Amino acid sequence: MLPRDLIDLMRDLNVFPVVVATADKEGNVHITFITWVYPIDERKLRIAVSSNAKTSQNIRETGRVAIQIFAPDKALSVYGNAKEIKEKIEEVPFPVSVFEVDIDTVDNALFPGATITGIIPFAHTGNVLKMTELDSKVLKAFKE
Q1: How many other CB atoms are found less than 10 A from the CB of residue 144?
Q2: 29-77: per-residue pLDDT in tens?
Q3: Would you list the DSSP string of 103-131?
Q4: Phi, psi for residue 95 in degrees, rounded to 5
Q5: Nearest Cα to 2, choosing from 77, 55, 113?
Q6: Which of 9, 56, 122, 123 is the most buried (most CB within 10 A)?
Q7: Domain ranges of the chain
């Protein structure tokens, strides 16, 4: 289960950088960095990814997902099964799909004597206003 303090932090920040790993039917692993992730509850996450991305293709193929989350005092490996719940967010001007991850396991990935002092530093570059508007549209889709 996801810890309550992590759920609250992820919801407060709206965009939260994580690393997502998927695999295709042949077992070829694909790893990517995303910021559109939202905790529904302790056992469910939603992520949004470009509909044509390898991550989306792999989830549709196998459903298996691993997500690495870094937060203050936490490095968690989240494993689960994902399914597409929205093929396209209509308000977004390019194809973005929403996937729901049913969490099977959450493992502490910190080694003894170490801690994480914050989340992955992240900032929008380019047109910040457009990106903020886009983030808002994706967050709204997560909550539907």
Answers
A1: 9
A2: 999 999 999 999 999 999 999 999 999 999 999 999 999 999 999 999 9
A3: EEEEEE-PPTT----SSPP----S-HHHH
A4: -70, 115
A5: 77
A6: 56
A7: 4-143
